[in-house]
Design goal:
Layout: H1 3-16, E1 24-25, E2 43-46, H2 53-56, E3 59-63, E4 69-77, H3 81-96, E5 100-103, E6 114-126, E7 130-141, E8 149-158, H4 164-185
Parallel strand pairs: 1-4, 2-5, 2-6, 3-6
Antiparallel strand pairs: 3-4, 6-7, 7-8
Helix pairs in contact: 3-4
InterPro entries: ABC_trans_aux
Organism: Marivita geojedonensis
Protein name: ABC-type transport auxiliary lipoprotein component domain-containing protein
């Protein structure tokens, strides 16, 4: 076998790995026009957000009429969903509250005043026109404030149409609503 044929044979598995035609979408949230909400802590470490397997893969999934989760065409997330959701929530909490918020690991010498652990049970769009995020959040106090607790959350926002762009936009609005609920836990 000559070198050229060997190179072609070795390149075939790489070509089968994926198409460059897949549209990639960012997990992001809308810019907030509201002011900062006063909270009882000066700094918060957001632990890595835990996502269920249906929300942590590369494909953008939608629940159909029968309840099955199916890929939305060839649309995929542009970043690791757990990393992107954690980063987006940290940014939202930082800009919407008076606390300095950073994703773990805490980057400063002085530790955070509180830690926030978010575990998402469900995060998906449905062909019925709704995007849902459900789960629980736990606040751990480092210096006595805020009151430690665990609370469940359920966020639901409408989707204008079932396209990757509309699902991404609805997810951003749902993450913004979730950040507002999390800020309430830090008061």
């Amino acid at each position: 076998m000559n070198v050229r044929a060997l190179a072609v044979v070795m390149a075939l598995p790489l070509a089968a790995c994926g198409s460059g035609d897949s549209a990639r979408y960012l997990i992001d949230a809308p810019v907030s026009a509201t002011g900062e909400t006063r909270v009882s802590v000066r700094s918060v470490e957001l632990r890595d957000v835990s996502l269920p397997s249906h929300a942590s893969g590369a494909e953008i999934l939608v629940r159909d009429e029968g309840g099955a989760l199916k890929p939305l065409g060839d649309a995929v997330w542009a970043d690791d969903p757990e990393r992107a959701v954690t980063g987006t929530l940290a940014q939202l909490l930082d800009t919407r509250s008076t606390a300095t918020v950073s994703a773990e690991p805490w980057p400063l010498l002085d530790g955070p005043s509180a830690r926030l652990d978010v575990r998402i049970d469900k995060m998906l769009a449905s062909v019925s026109g709704v995007f849902e995020i459900t789960g629980q959040a736990a606040v751990s106090a480092v210096d006595g404030r805020p009151r430690e607790r665990v609370e469940r959350f359920a966020i639901s926002v409408p989707i204008s149409e079932i396209t990757a762009a509309a699902v991404t936009e609805a997810q951003g609005r749902a993450l913004a609503a979730l950040s507002d609920e999390l800020i309430g836990l830090l008061r």
